[in-house]
C-alpha cells in the first residue's frame, strides 16, 4: 500500500498512544503530520521528537513555551489553543485524521478535517452522538469516509463490506457488561471509582472505562451506529457477551449473521481504520478458540443500568437530546472521578438534565454548543446536592 500520513487529534490519550504504536510497527506504511494534546505536554514532546510531525498543538496555551523550547531546532511547527486544532486540519499532506479527543471538543476539528476533504478514523464517538446528522451530511457532501475505530463499529463495518444496504435486518452490538455485570442496584450503591476503573477485558482511558461500567458507553455506541450505518434505533440490539471476542454482528434479511472476532486489543481496529481498504499484517496474538470453550450472551439489565435505556430514549427523541445526554454524562463522570457523586447518582443527574435542559428539535451548528453549555451548567448545579 502507498504510505499514508496521519494526523492524530488526542495523541497522548489511550487511543492516540496505541495508534502511535501501530505507526511505529509499520513505519514503512504510515507517517505522522500532526500530534495534539490538551495538557500532557511532556508526552507530546516525547512523541514529537520520535515521530517528527509537521505540527504539534498543545490546546492548553499555558504549556506552549515549554513545548516550543523542547522542540526548538526540529523544524516542527508548534501551536497552542483550540483554534489551532482547526487550523492544522488544513495541512495538505495529511491523508487521514484520527479523532481521538474526548468529548464534544472533537467536533469542530473533525468538521474542519471533513471540510478539507480528509478521511476520518473516528474514535471520538461524541462527535456523532452530539451532531450525527451534521457530521454525516458534511462527510457525504465532501466525499469523505468515516472509518470507525471503536472495536464494535469496526466489526460492523467489516461485516458490511460487499453487502447491499437494503440487506441489513439488524445490527447487534456486543457489550462485555463491565466490571459490575450481574450486580443489583443495592450492590452498586457504594461502588468506588477504583472498582469502576477495573475493566475485566479492555485497557482504556478513565472516562470510557467509567462509561463502560455504567453501560453509557454502549448506549453512546448505539447512537453512533445509527449515524455510521444509517439504521433506526429499533434495528440496533445490544447483547452482553462477557468474553469480548465477538466484537459485534450483523443479521441480514435472509436470516444469516456475520460476526467479526478477535482478541480484545484496540490496536487491531485502529490499524484496520488507518490501513483501509488494505488489511495489513499484525504481530498481535491470535484468537485461540480452544481458550474459549464457552461463548455466552445475555440481555442487558436496563433496570439496573439505566444509562442504556436513556440513550435509546435520546436517540428516539432526536434533535439536541443526545447532546444533552452526552454533556450531562461528561460532567457526572468527571464528578464521580473526583468523588463528588455516587455511581448510581450519575444516572439520576443525566435523567434530570434530559427533563430540564431546553430542547431543540431541528438544531443548527450553534444549537449544539449552546445546548452543551446549558447542560453542563445545569448538571453542575444538580451535582452540588450530593456534595
Q: Which shape, going by the Cα principal axes?
A: globular
Main β-sheet, spatial strand arrangement: 4-3-2-1-5-6-7
As a percent range, the share of helical residues equals: 40-55%
| Alpha-carbon distance between the two ends | 55 Å
Q: Mind telling me the C-alpha Rg?
A: 20 Å
| SSE string | EHEHEHEHEHEHEHEHHHHEEEHHHHH
Count the E strands: 11
Uncertain regions: pLDDT < 50 for 5+ in a row? none
Number of DSSP helical runs: 16
Instruction: Give the helix/strand class.
Output: alpha/beta
DSSP strand content = 5-15%
- Can you summarize the main beta sheet? 7 strands, parallel
Average pLDDT reading? 94
Q: How would you sum up this structure, described in words?
A:
With 387 residues, the chain is of the alpha/beta class. Helices cover 45% and strands 15% of the residues. The chain is built from 16 helices and 11 strands. It has helices at 14-25, 41-51, 64-70, 82-87, 107-115, 126-141, 151-160, 185-188, 193-196, 206-214, 216-229, 267-275, 306-317, 321-337, 343-356, 365-383; strands at 4-9, 30-37, 55-58, 77-80, 96-99, 119-122, 146-148, 168-175, 236-240, 246-252, 257-261. The strands form 2 sheets. The protein has a 7-stranded parallel β-sheet with strand order 4-3-2-1-5-6-7, sandwiched between helices. Helix 2 (41-51) runs parallel beside helix 3 (64-70). The longest helix is centred in the last third of the chain and has 19 residues, at 365-383. The model has no long low-confidence stretch (mean pLDDT 94).
Amino acid at each position: 500500500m502507498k504510505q499514508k500520513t496521519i494526523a492524530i487529534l488526542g495523541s497522548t490519550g489511550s487511543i492516540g498512544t496505541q495508534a502511535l504504536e501501530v505507526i511505529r510497527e509499520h513505519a514503512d506504511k504510515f507517517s505522522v503530520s500532526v500530534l495534539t494534546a490538551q495538557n500532557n505536554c511532556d508526552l507530546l514532546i516525547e512523541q514529537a521528537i520520535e515521530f517528527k510531525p509537521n505540527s504539534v498543538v498543545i490546546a492548553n496555551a499555558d504549556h506552549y513555551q515549554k513545548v516550543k523550547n523542547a522542540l526548538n531546532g526540529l523544524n516542527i511547527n508548534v501551536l497552542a489553543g483550540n483554534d489551532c486544532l482547526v487550523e492544522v486540519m488544513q495541512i495538505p499532506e495529511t491523508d487521514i485524521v484520527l479523532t481521538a479527543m474526548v468529548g464534544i471538543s472533537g467536533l469542530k476539528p473533525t468538521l474542519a478535517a471533513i471540510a478539507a476533504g480528509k478521511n476520518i478514523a473516528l474514535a471520538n464517538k461524541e462527535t456523532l452522538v452530539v451532531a450525527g446528522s451534521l457530521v454525516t451530511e458534511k462527510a457525504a457532501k465532501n466525499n469523505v469516509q468515516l472509518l470507525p475505530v471503536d472495536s464494535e463499529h469496526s466489526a460492523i463495518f467489516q461485516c458490511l463490506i460487499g453487502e447491499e444496504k437494503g440487506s441489513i435486518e439488524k445490527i447487534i452490538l456486543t457489550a462485555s457488561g463491565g466490571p459490575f455485570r450481574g450486580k443489583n442496584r443495592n450492590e452498586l450503591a457504594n461502588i468506588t471509582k477504583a472498582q469502576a476503573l477495573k475493566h475485566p477485558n479492555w485497557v482504556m482511558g478513565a472516562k470510557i472505562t467509567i462509561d463502560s461500567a455504567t453501560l453509557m458507553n454502549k448506549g453512546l455506541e448505539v447512537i453512533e451506529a445509527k449515524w455510521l450505518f444509517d439504521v433506526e434505533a429499533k434495528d440496533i440490539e445490544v447483547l452482553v457477551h462477557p468474553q469480548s471476542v465477538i466484537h459485534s454482528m450483523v443479521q441480514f434479511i435472509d436470516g444469516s449473521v456475520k460476526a467479526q472476532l478477535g482478541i480484545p486489543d484496540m490496536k487491531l481496529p485502529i490499524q484496520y481504520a488507518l490501513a483501509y481498504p488494505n488489511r495489513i499484517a499484525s504481530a498481535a496474538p491470535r484468537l485461540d478458540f480452544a481458550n474459549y470453550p464457552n461463548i455466552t450472551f445475555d440481555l442487558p439489565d436496563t433496570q439496573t443500568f439505566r444509562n442504556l435505556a436513556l440513550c435509546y430514549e435520546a436517540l428516539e427523541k432526536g434533535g439536541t437530546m443526545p447532546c444533552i445526554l452526552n454533556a450531562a454524562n461528561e460532567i457526572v463522570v468527571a464528578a464521580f472521578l473526583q468523588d463528588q457523586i455516587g455511581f448510581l447518582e450519575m444516572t439520576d443527574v443525566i435523567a434530570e438534565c434530559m427533563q430540564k435542559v431546553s430542547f431543540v428539535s431541528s438544531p443548527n451548528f450553534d444549537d449544539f454548543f449552546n445546548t452543551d453549555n446549558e447542560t453542563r451548567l445545569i448538571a453542575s448545579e444538580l451535582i452540588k446536592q450530593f456534595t
